[in-house]
Amino acid sequence: ESGEGGGAQMYTSAARVLLLGMGADEQMGGYGRHRTAFKRGGWAGLGAELAADRARLWKRNLGRDDRVVSDHGREARYPFLDEEVVATLAATPLHLLCDPRRPPGVGDKLVLRLLARSIGLSRCASLQKRAIQFGTRIANKNVSGTALLSPDIALDELVHPSAALTAAEAASPAAAAPPRGKPRESLAKPTKRRAGGRLAAKSAAAAAAVAAVAAYARLPEGAPRGPLTALPLSRVSGRVSRGATLAAFETLHPDGLAVKPVSWVVGEEGLSMLLGAGTVEERLLRLGFEKRWIERRRAAGEAFRLALFPAEAAEPATWDGIFNVVRETFPEAAPKVLARAGELRALPFAELQARATAGYLRGASYFEVNEAAMAGASEDSRYLSTARLASEQCEGRVEEVRGWLYHVLGLSDLFDGAGSTVLPDGRRGVGEFLIRNRRVADFGEAFAWVELTP
């Protein structure tokens, strides 16, 4: 904590006993060497490596840690090394403890992560293991600290109830203001139950998980799940929206149905990233949003929300998908767009931007004209609406068609037709798709807004 002068203030704990997490990685496949063992020898190889870890744990770690703790006048307790916990984990099928086929931060210590989510610890449950390097006190910066969530995790295990807003709740004046603070994660006090002299860990944990998830989803125990919260992550789509008024959140895209007939959405990959750890800006950047766009939206006083709704048939964000959307949704613009399909695929964005800037944009960029239109200057003839592109006055040059795609469909300079977002540094992001824009009220109960808090 900070003292009155703003500096660090030393604090000495009076606690005499420390709870340490030793043994979780060794018993539930938390180390990178466990993945290596699985690749080389399958489940049998992984099982042998875990058995070796358990056998040498006392020699490798416990003696050292006990001496360090004792030197500071404290005693250590190891909940994961309780003899009955060890016996229960040893008797549990290996594929329930960990699954090296899944990404880091998901498959390692799988059972522990699922239990953490069931009691509301969704953020820490998706963190990737980071080692504190011996002697340096510096975390391993080669690991980002986040990982994609499993696609079979139910949505109500990820979204905190104080952050989720139904369509009806979002329409209330109170919902317009951003939340004042983050929901605090809670940790249930562990209890020990015996059945026949052994720890009934699996049945007790299952019962606790069901109760925790029911409360977490704001549903009474025994009540049927709602049409949205009961869905696994793999069957939910999401879209980041923004706005400074309630009207902006009446449709999936804040600019309304007439201006933006289609909306960009993400699936399970993007949702796991948006519902994971990090600030709003960090999550949006990882999804492929431009930093300057985020900064301008914030400067305009706009808040960010994540729309959640059942997944449906959608066009992938490839050139083929874009052209399909143009045919079906913009028949008046389709002839000019499809006539330039080959050039759009072949020419880099920078070349098209240079042509447009030197030509019809009169020194401006696609981005600058688009920002001016969002600020209310859509009467600017450089902003190529669908009507302007389709008019006889527009020749339909490839740079003009690219401008229309930028302004109306939202194809920024990061779009390259590969079907996924592209990060500013050139790395691939997550898959993205296009669907028709619509009013959120049309989804009924199968919809929720989630506040994206800093």
Keywords:
19 helices, alpha+beta, 12 strands, 11% strand
Q: Quick gist of this model?
A:
With 454 residues, the chain is an alpha+beta fold. Helices cover 39% and strands 11% of the residues.
Characterise the protein shown here.
The chain has 454 residues and is of the alpha+beta class. Helix content is 39%, strand content 11%. The chain contains 19 helices and twelve strands. The chain has a four-stranded antiparallel beta sheet with strand order 3-12-8-6. Strands 7, 9, 10 and 11 form a four-stranded antiparallel beta sheet that branches. Strand 10 and strand 11 (428-436) form a beta hairpin. The longest helix has 40 residues, at 32-71. The chain is elongated, with a radius of gyration of 26 Å. Residues 133-149 and 160-226 have low confidence and may be disordered.
